[in-house]
């Protein structure tokens, strides 16, 4: 029987602050704060003001991983130029075959999304993703704090700091967006990690699963555009409009 309350609970929201294009074009000024963004959230990720570290958030807590690679608690007042956060939604747990790579996880998430028996599967092409487990060949990264005038993101990332771990245990959280190169979202699977011992973390480049559980939340998306001249809030129902 159709249960409106259950349907509403299943319909989580993913909110993204600012477009990827803006970040790409060196807008590293804060548009929001950690406290404002990570409220009643399921999981999230972001970048700190001035590119001063990668943000990873889950289990009610947000962390910042600066260029030295050691995670610190993200201050509530810390500014964020870019963040994506999931709220609500209904988790679907899926075991992950050992040996799975990031590409395999992308396929697994797609399988979960298309198998979702929710009424309108085309609305659910965006998913929040969490992977808990033990991994091999993990490569994470952060970047150095920038000073104005800010260089474009490719310049910053050309000097990124990589952290490589033959064996790594922890949690990866993030989002699976459509593959469209529309500049609004970061296409594909975007994950940030934090180790179980809280001694490492960052934006995730690659990993191989030793053993892990994948949790997927099916969601729709709101993109918030904070700049003057742009609409205050654009509701981007990714998948509906083909982006
Ligand atoms: Zn990232």
What is the secondary structure topology, with strand pairs?
Layout: H1 4-10, E1 12-17, H2 20-24, E2 32-33, H3 34-37, E3 43-47, E4 54-58, E5 61-65, E6 72-73, E7 79-80, E8 82-87, E9 91-96, H4 102-115, E10 126-142, H5 153-158, E11 161-177, E12 188-195, E13 201-224, E14 233-234
Parallel strand pairs: 1-13
Antiparallel strand pairs: 1-8, 2-7, 3-4, 3-8, 4-5, 5-6, 9-13, 10-11, 10-13, 11-12, 12-13, 13-14
The chain binds zinc ion.
Give a structural overview.
The protein is built from 5 helices and 14 strands. The chain is mainly β and 243 residues long. It has a single domain (4-234), classed as 60s Ribosomal Protein L30, Chain: A, CATH 3.30.1330.80. Strands 1, 3, 4, 5, 6, 8, 9, 10, 11, 12, 13 and 14 form a 12-stranded mixed sheet that branches. Strands 2-7 form a two-stranded antiparallel sheet. β5 (61-65) and β6 (72-73) form a beta hairpin. The chain is globular. Zinc ion binds next to β12.
How would you summarize this macromolecular structure in one to three sentences?
By secondary structure, the protein is mainly beta. The chain is built from five helices and 14 strands.
CATH topology group: 60s Ribosomal Protein L30, Chain: A
Q: Measured on Cα atoms, how large is the radius of gyration?
A: 17 Å
Class by alpha and beta content: mainly beta
| Beginning-to-end CA distance, first to last residue | 33 Å
Main sheet attributes: strand count, strand direction, barrel closure: 12 strands, mixed
Number of domains: 1
Helix content class = 10-25%
CATH superfamily: Hypothetical protein, similar to alpha- acetolactate decarboxylase, domain 2
* Hetero groups: zinc ion
């Amino acid at each position: 029987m159709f249960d409106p309350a259950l349907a509403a609970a299943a319909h989580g929201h993913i909110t993204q602050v600012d477009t990827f294009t803006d970040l790409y074009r060196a807008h590293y000024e804060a548009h929001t704060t950690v406290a404002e963004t990570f409220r009643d959230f399921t999981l999230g990720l972001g970048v700190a003001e001035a590119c001063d570290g990668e943000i990873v958030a889950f289990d009610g807590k947000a962390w910042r991983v600066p260029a030295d690679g050691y995670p610190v608690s993200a201050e509530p007042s810390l500014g964020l130029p870019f963040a994506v956060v999931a709220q609500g939604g209904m988790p679907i747990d899926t075991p992950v075959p050992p040996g799975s790579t990031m590409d395999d996880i992308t396929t697994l998430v797609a399988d979960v999304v298309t198998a979702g028996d929710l009424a309108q599967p085309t609305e659910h092409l965006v998913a929040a993703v969490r992977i808990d487990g033990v991994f091999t060949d993990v490569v994470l990264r952060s970047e150095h704090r920038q000073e104005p005038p800010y260089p474009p993101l490719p310049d910053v990332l050309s000097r990124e700091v990589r952290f490589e771990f033959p064996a790594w245990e922890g949690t990866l959280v993030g989002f699976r967006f459509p593959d469209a190169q529309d500049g609004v979202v970061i296409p594909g699977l975007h994950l940030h990690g934090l180790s179980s011992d809280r001694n490492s973390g960052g934006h995730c480049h690659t990993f191989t699963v030793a053993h892990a559980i994948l949790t997927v939340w099916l969601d729709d998306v709101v993109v918030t555009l904070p700049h003057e001249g742009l609409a205050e809030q654009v509701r981007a129902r990714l998948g509906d409009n083909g982006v």
